[in-house]
Amino acid sequence: MEVLFLMIGASLSLAFFFLLAFIWAVKSGQFEDTYGPSIKILFDEDREISTQEKKGE
Amino acid sequence: MINVAREAVSCFHCGLELSGSDALEAEGKFFCCRGCLQVYRLLSQSGLDRYYQLAKSPGRAGGGEDYSYLEDKGLQERLLSSSDGRIAQVCLEVPNLHCASCVYLMENLYRLEGGILRTSVDFYQKRVLIVFERSRTSLARVVRLLGRLGYPPRLNLELLDGGEKESLGKELEGDLIRLAVAGFCFGNVMLFSFPIYLGGESVPVHFQRFFAYLCCFLSLPVLFYSAYPWYQRAWTYLRLGRISLDVPILVGLLALFIQSSYEVLARVGHGYWDSLCGFVFFLLLGRFFQRKFFENISFERDLRSYFPLAVFRQEGGEFRITAVDDLEEGDRIRLRSREIVPSDGELEGGEALFDYSFITGESAAVLRRRGDFILAGARFLGGEGRIRVLRSVDKSFLLSLWRGKVESSRASWVDVFSPYFVGIVIGIGVLSAGYWWWQRDFEFGVFVFFSILIVACPCALALSGPFTYGSFLRLLAKRGIFLKDGGVLERFYGVDAVVFDKTGTLTSAQLELELEWGGLGREERGWVLGVVDGSSHPVSMALGELLRSEVGGEEVMDFFEVEEYPGKGLRGRVEGLEICVGQLSWLSSLGCELRGVDCERWQSWSHLGVCVQGRLEAVYRISFQLRPGWREVLEDLRGRGVELHLLSGDGPQWRHIFEVPFEGRVYFRQGPEDKLDYIRSLQLRGKTVAMVADGINDGPALSQSDVSVVVVEEKGAFSPSGECIVLGRYFGDLPGLWEISSRAMRILKFSVGLGVVYNVVGLGFAVAGRLSPVVAAILMPLSSISVMVFTTLGSVWVYGKVFSWRS
Known about the structure:
The complex is a heterodimer.
Chain A: H1 3-27, H2 36-40, H3 47-56
Chain B: H1 2-6, E1 8-10, E2 17-19, E3 24-26, E4 29-31, H2 34-45, H3 50-54, H4 73-79, E5 81-82, E6 87-93, H5 100-107, E7 116-122, E8 127-133, H6 139-148, H7 166-199, H8 205-226, H9 228-239, H10 246-265, H11 273-290, E9 310-315, E10 318-323, E11 332-334, E12 345-347, E13 351-355, E14 366-369, E15 373-374, E16 379-383, E17 386-389, H12 397-401, H13 413-416, H14 418-439, H15 442-455, H16 459-478, E18 481-483, H17 486-492, E19 497-501, H18 502-506, E20 507-518, H19 522-532, H20 538-551, E21 560-565, E22 569-574, E23 577-582, H21 584-589, E24 607-612, E25 615-626, H22 630-639, E26 643-647, H23 655-659, E27 666-667, H24 672-684, E28 689-693, H25 699-704, E29 707-712, E30 724-727, H26 734-767, H27 773-804
Parallel strand pairs in B: 19-26, 19-28, 26-27, 28-29, 29-30
Antiparallel strand pairs in B: 1-2, 3-4, 5-6, 6-8, 7-8, 9-10, 9-11, 11-17, 12-15, 12-17, 13-14, 13-16, 18-30, 20-25, 21-22, 22-23, 23-24, 24-25
Helix pairs in contact in B: 7-8, 7-11, 8-10, 8-11, 9-10, 10-11, 10-15, 11-16, 11-27, 14-15, 15-26, 16-17, 16-26, 16-27, 17-26, 19-20, 26-27
């Protein structure tokens, strides 16, 4: 039963890591604009193509 | 094809409906004007056709404002931020962003202008960050591109301040992290409390202690970090000598902490950690719920967003662009059409026309002559715009009218009754503790005392306000009514006197023209349009719009030799014909044949005549457009027993319209101080006053009133500080606020009652000394959740009821 100490420690650490990840996400401004990203995923990824075209010029 | 041309079609770019014969056709699509067609061409040539697929008719016609002043190096230094001199970035406010297509276009700007490296859009703030290479393009070109696409950026003095809008974002950040920490700890503490609740004494002692310490440890960040806003708020109010609701909240939190710590350290129990964490978590949820996610609305507009960025200043022999901030006394500036006068000054040129409607409320354009004093904030309309600066921007009279922030230290109803709450709870606590001390022992007495403080924790009370008003704020925002906070909504139903401003509030900013005599043929309309287009006088623009709507599309006319005579009219030649538009008396002085029209009857700016080749062809009557539904709004308020008053900075020309609805309480030529004094006198009579206004001249009065309502035409527009901002087209919904306010109060009271029921039940347990952690852990979330659900559902239901029979 003593293994519980280890298990709880491990799971808490994992959860804590996710908390840190969330804090990082907030601080890096990912929650600032909630509408824009929802549209941007609909756009085509032709940025790669056009920069390649430009390089080719 | 002939049949199609006669049908109604809509512009592919902007969606305007027009008849097929008026539309421009290209590539099988119809366009209403050259502006729209040009943008379409630009986009399709660059492969950005997706613009039209992402939203319906997303476009606006491109504009051609003169942005050459942005080429000035000094100005650029102040507007751009650049890390290495090669690459620069600028953050611009683009009010026209409204849909997915707009975002698409902004993100793809780099395809339209080489040199733009990337753009990033913040939709809610309506801002675009553009990063570009200075060697390949410039700020002026970028701004011009935006203008041509139909997304002109707002360029005003506020831009020079940069980075101060960040504070909104920082607050949200802080709250989110606090919520995350509270949620993390709450969840884990609940989890680690279960073994003890479920297993009780059968759990091995070392685990019991382990869990207890773990919960204690996890609760610390919640108590000290997540709950911090409440410490702040309680202290702010205590300094003002008031006990707000935060005090009982903190009392409860501290009681929880002390009791729990004691139990764990003295090994007599496990503590109430889950109640502590849960309480803070719910409080934070409530705070979050109240948060406004309003697009681009500011309740505290800085005057700097009203002033222009730069102006032409005379330096040496020529005029050079200077930031308005740098103007000094004695400088000479030259204004362009429709520019706002940036500082108090003296007119140096000949005659010039100014629009003072936003500053003093006078709706008619005012003619000024050489040597006259010009107030900062007036809009220059035409004539000779050379002004000698008398005071720098910061010292202008405008600022003295401006009372920036509205004090929001007004207590909510819930706050008012918290001192009693604290008193009653402590009273019961002391009495019960004393009883048990006598009956059993001191320790039990203390335990009972703390139990009472814990259970009386005003969780339900603290949540009632945020959730009730939070819902309403959100729902009203969809309706074009934006409130600063719940307290504002609460105050509406106590208002028994409303003071209205006239210009811009009851009347929209638009002038209305009606044909009163004669008429113009189709060709003639086109010619007159050509002449009128060159002028930026409000009357010319109104005539231009009227003619354009009759003609149905933009007829691009070559106009040359258009002369503007300030205060009198316009004269120009189109296709060899002389066209004159203006006051009838002026037209007759030019020698136009008036054909029997009596220019004595129709004088001044109430009527406008149009002469073609010396012959009067048409006379239009000018009037202000009253907001639709204004009469109903007044009647509704009167029906509620609200006293109505009208204070206008304008003259009494339209008195007869307002006499009856306002029951005679109409006053004209009111300056800012007059309005302020009037509101004060009403308050001295014991009235709770709401002021509905729109201009800077109303600033002091708005601050003085108990509730300030500001009417704006568009969300991003500048407005004086107000607690409630209403979009012009939703003006008719104003009375609904009174209804909602009174019903919201009912919901709030009911919800508080619900909380009291829980408190009484809990107190029963506490006084009997039976408040175990399990009981507390069940009662608290139960009361919180039922309050949240009840208030949210109640507010949605009330909102539906109030506004369903309105629309």
